[in-house]
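Re: folding output
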Amino acid sequence: LVEVRAMASSAGSTRPQQQTQRRPEPSAGGVIDLTLDDDEEAPAVRTEKPKRRPPASSDAISDAKRARTTTAVTTQEPAWARKRGVPRIMLELRALRDEWDAPPRVWDVELVEDRATLWRFKVDGFDDSTEGGAQLNRDLHELGRRRGQSYILMEASFPDDYPNKPFFVRCVSPRFVWYTGHITAGGAICIEALTTSGTPGSWSPSHCVEAVLRTVFANMVHAERGYVRTANGGGPTGPLRVDLQHTYTHDVLHAYELHEARAAFGRMLDHHRRHGW
């Protein structure tokens, strides 16, 4: 598509100067801007009669409508995106309840004592196609057979100025083998995205509960095998394992306390300040 602009001849000239044509940038929507200044003449433009196209079939029309609808849905920002405080928290709660597409399965998402800033929820049904997910599912199945609980109970708490500051998420029960699945000895989650360390992967107000939980669950089943050294000595790392052998606890369903999780999270932050992420 070409825009043709003609400059008017200078005063007293009898022959117009030939203006070099230039290729314009097409405007939005495929519309060509042929607007001229008041002192310009519109050049003669030869046009060709457009060829008639056969009418689109009903199937093609339907496909085009579906494509436009799909584009509109995928580009629409989440309902919570411009919210703050409790309105933001409640919209994220609704999204977690209605839009989560497992695995793992996240269910029974409820407020604790009707407090918008404190949630509890259950997690099970990890991805069986991964070694870590299949093993964790077996652990939870065995836990259910022995003690009647075949899921992970988790808790999320939110600050009043959320999302300026991150929420805090922890496991409540069962208890896990230390250093596995990025779960601390106190049940807190070892994840850079929930810190305010200012590092590239730390918290941003654009983050949300759903996105962070997906990372948490991926870390549970994909944690690398190795060895970690801590102030308490350290131990082998790897995908998350339930402490069914009572190596670190006398009761695998003895709930992690909040103060345990907070203390363990603080130790984790100190460790990463010294050694990086």
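--- second protein (sequence, then structure) ---
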Amino acid sequence: HRRAMDSLASRAVVSTTVLKTGPRSMRSPRLSMRRAGSSRDKVLTRMGHGDSSMSEDEDDYASDINRTPYYTQTERKFLDMITIQALKNLLHFLQETNGEMHMYLHNHITENPFELSETRSMEDWLTDLAAKPLTRVNDPRRSSVPGPAMDEEALRKGREISPRDLVERILQARSNVAEELTRELSAPRLAVKNNRIFTAALASTFRLSDDDV
């Protein structure tokens, strides 16, 4: 009888221990959710997205641990850079095809230089340009070109420039620059460029002296 009682007591102790600790799969779901939330908060804080009022897109971005730490900064600087390059390309083409639009854009850049900072980017610069009203521009170079009377009269009146249309051209040029860079900086081509760095470093390290020639 005593042995039976001892056996029952032993089983009761084992059962109590299992209930207290339990396998990982049987632990409280609330505890698991709290830990998951804590881990997510750490990721958001580490990546600079600790704001609880984030949008869904920002939340998806912040939860992607494959992003590099300065991805947001890299994206912004990249957009600024390709926007400026797009403006240069567009100015080059407009100089030959649309003198009035070229003059308007050139003057706008002169009067509104790029003031990039932590709070202002090229996106803001483009937004300000797109919000400008329609403007009539006279290009003296075109007005001085002899031609049919009707064409000369039209040229003297100038051409109406739409800043919004101009921004659309800039954005299209920016897309072209981005595609061009994507091809040029693809993984295989970038690997070649990376190898050139070490090749040049090796060549500068081992230089043949006059005695070795």
